[in-house]
Design brief:
Elements lengths: L1 E3 L3 E3 L1 H19 L4 E2 L1 H8 L3 H9 L11 E2 H12 L5 E6 L3 H9 L7 E8 L8 E2 L2 E5 L3 H8 L3 E4 L6 H10 L4 E4 L13 E4 L2 H15 L1
Parallel strand pairs: 5-6, 5-9, 6-8, 9-10, 10-11
Antiparallel strand pairs: 1-2, 3-4, 7-8
Helix pairs in contact: 1-4, 2-3
Length: 214
């Protein structure tokens, strides 16, 4: 369970749906949509209207009967719940293919997060520029973390190095790990919130669902 502002303890499933709501509401504003009913929002996300109302009621509701939801207000409220205005700072460790892709193509600021430094242990990579950042040697990580106090670390280094790096980061007071290494860090790391991103898990889930259609 997660404790969010004004929402008490809510399940991770609700948190993940809130993230989807935030993304779609952001897209709606760009499409010049300013009001939407729970049913139309549900249709857009492939959910039910009752599920959306139930999720939002965990935090006070935000809708008006007969009117629906003001998209801009709901976006702002959900953004506050998810912490997009906290101004969290992130570092990235491991500037291989995945790390480069994230640095060059992913907009961290969309989630209210500032990428402030990237690190690698490959001397052929250290000193190069990726996504507007100079790759720093991993030996400089501790001093950098003590000086800049990053909240989150994005892990795109080899799987076998992930557990030790995660423990090192928690000792440096990093409290969030966005983990692309394939290692299930939540099984062993304490003192940090971990979000494991595993492409194989997602692909196998898709394979199972395709099998249901055959």
């Amino acid at each position: 369970m997660s404790k969010l502002s004004s929402g008490g303890n809510v399940s991770q499933a609700v948190v993940r749906r809130l993230s989807r709501y935030y993304r779609h509401l952001h897209e709606m504003l760009q499409e010049d949509v300013h009001r939407i009913s729970s049913q139309k929002l549900a249709d857009r996300l492939g959910l039910t209207a009752s599920q959306i109302r139930q999720d939002l009621n965990c935090f006070g509701g935000f809708g008006q009967q007969g009117y629906g939801y003001n998209v801009e207000i709901l976006l702002r409220e959900i953004g506050g719940i998810l912490g997009v205005r906290r101004g969290l700072a992130a570092i990235l460790i491991g500037v291989g293919n995945m790390g480069r892709a994230l640095c060059n193509n992913f907009d961290f600021s969309w989630a209210g997060i500032r990428l402030i430094g990237i690190f690698d242990n490959n001397p052929d990579v250290v000193g190069s520029t990726v996504g507007g950042f100079t790759v720093q040697a991993i030996e400089r990580l501790d001093a950098f973390a003590e000086r800049r106090r990053p909240d989150i670390a994005v892990l795109t280094l080899p799987r076998e190095l992930a557990p030790a790096m995660a423990e090192r980061l928690t000792r440096l007071s990093v409290r969030g790990l966005w983990n692309f290494t394939g290692a299930d860090l939540h099984l062993s790391i304490e003192g940090a919130a971990v979000e494991n991103v595993n492409f194989a898990d997602s692909l196998l889930t898709l394979s199972y669902r395709v099998g249901e259609l055959l």
